[in-house]
Prior knowledge:
By secondary structure, the protein is an alpha/beta fold. It is built from nine helices and seven strands. The termini are far apart.
Amino acid sequence: MSEIAPASDMATLGRGKAMEFCFVIGRPRSGTTVFKDMLKTHPRIYSAGEIFNESNSQSYFHFLQQQFAGDPAAVLPSNSIANFLKYLDWCRGRALERKKNARIVVADVKYDQSHLIYDPWWRVGSLPKIFFLIRERGWKVIDIHRSDIVGLVVSNQVAIQTKIYHSTALEPGARQSARVHINPDLLKRELATTASAYQTVSRHFGSYKNYLMLIYEEMFDSKAGGEFAGGVLERLCTFLGLEDKFVRRPKLEKLLADDVYAHIENAWEIRELVASLRTTKQE
Length: 283
């Protein structure tokens, strides 16, 4: 990670530049990574990656390490939001250094890590502070949902249990062949949690003009060999105010089989559970 510039230097880097921030949010295994990788192919977009992932050299936590080294008071909860705003300033400066024509900085944030930016006196039960910051600051936000929540949960469990999160960890053209045991109670909790999160987040941003919700299953065009769908890119370009200069072919390949039950050791049990939940919902 490069040396972090003082705030005054970062402001100088950004002077005269209309740099915007766009947060790509979603639950783990919802497609935020493949989507973010497509976004950064545009000449006007710079990606900071998954900003709350410690393995990312541009992550918020790497920034914090250097902040704490210079100012021990940075660790105090009351400085959390100020630290995050300084981090975004640093991302803006890095974008201008590495991609001089960039106009938008993209940050990938999973719902499950959004609480890592906090207000020390935040209300119990409220959405994490970062969702309110996005609205208060006028930042753009793209919220990716998956219609097939069972597929999302299974994909996440396969990734957690095998430590293989993307196709780049496999041989070229290979797919994940592992079979894992899915805890029925965990599946029920995850289905309920995801459905509730989708409703709560979309309700929070419902009237916000800088909010775009995309469905993962609608992002790809099977007739075009799995490329990003033209209709999705058209909506995206309108939302971001950019010309369509994206590379449409995804960098990452699909990891699991179309039938996710093929990756479940206790598939019969999970099929019965999902069927019973659907019947209960219909009633």
